[in-house]
Amino acid sequence: MARHKTANLPDLEALLAPPDELSLAVEQALLRRAPDDPQAAPMAEQIAARLAGAITLNQIQAGQRLLEGDISAAMGVSRAPVREALRILEKDRLVEYQPRRGAIVTAPDADELRDIYAVRATLYEALLRQVLDENPSALPAIFDEHMPRLHRAAARSLDAYALAGFLLNFAIFDACRNALLGDLLKSISLRTLRYLRLGLAHGHNVIPTSLRSWEDLHLSILKGPPELIITTARQRIHKARDAAVQALLSNSPRPQGAAHA
């Protein structure tokens, strides 16, 4: 399946390999289904989810072309659901269409990064306020469950830590009774995860700093008034944004696979 380098086509074997924990979480997030949901997702959504996982984890890299024929052959499906899957990824801005080149994996961009995190911070604040108003006991329970996992993951690898934070955020989103607000944040998380991995790979102190920001948020939830919780959550998001921006502007190489912290 290897191609001449000038074609800039990805090795699609990643689409056939069993997904690891992080790519599986990405796929389930895009499908908006729990792993044990008996209702099968449409084929186009399944293909889009698998491609999104490969792109987010940099198994398919920025600038590479995604050809319908190659993907359909690799996955043993017709071209119609592949075409629809690429349009789904275009909506999530993981893919863009270029004249005479077709579908191209988008490159991480500092301006887009800042825009995404600005929207994320606003939605996150709105969701936290609603959870604190309607279901205040949910957050301490969520953090008591997930913080030990986050600590263990920080000692393992970049991707283990990214997965633990990803799942912690999703537990927070699920605590909100406003399903639309939670769904919007989950959709944005698929794009911020790509940038988060860039930031986490940029220097040895990034993961410990990120972990401390989660600890600060946990402490504010246990002891602080709502405004302190909101402020601490906003600061945590800004730190993640700044780490990713630094990584982009310094031309730091994108993380490959499950790089260790």
Write the layout of secondary structure elements.
Elements: H1 21-31, H2 43-56, E1 65-66, H3 68-75, H4 79-91, E2 95-98, E3 102-105, H5 110-134, H6 138-154, H7 158-174, H8 179-200, H9 206-223, H10 226-249
Helix pairs in contact: 1-2, 2-4, 3-4, 5-8, 5-10, 6-7, 6-9, 7-8, 8-10, 9-10
Question: Can you give a write-up of this model?
Answer:
The chain is mainly alpha-helical. It folds into two domains: 101 residues, Winged helix-like DNA-binding domain superfamily/Winged helix DNA-binding domain (Arc Repressor Mutant, subunit A), CATH 1.10.10.10; 140 residues, GntR ligand-binding domain-like (Four Helix Bundle (Hemerythrin (Met), subunit A)), CATH 1.20.120.530. It is 65% helix and 4% strand. It contains ten helices and three strands. The protein has a three-stranded antiparallel sheet with strand order 1-3-2. A hairpin with a 3-residue loop joins strand 2 and strand 3. Helix 3 crosses helix 4 and helix 6 packs antiparallel against helix 7.
Summarize the structure.
With 261 residues, the chain is mainly alpha-helical. The protein contains ten helices and three strands; from the N terminus they run ααβααββαααααα. Helices cover 65% and strands 4% of the residues.
Short key terms for the protein model shown above:
three-stranded antiparallel β-sheet, 261 residues, 10 helices, globular, mainly alpha, single chain, disordered N terminus, Four Helix Bundle (Hemerythrin (Met), subunit A), 2 domains, disordered C terminus, Arc Repressor Mutant, subunit A
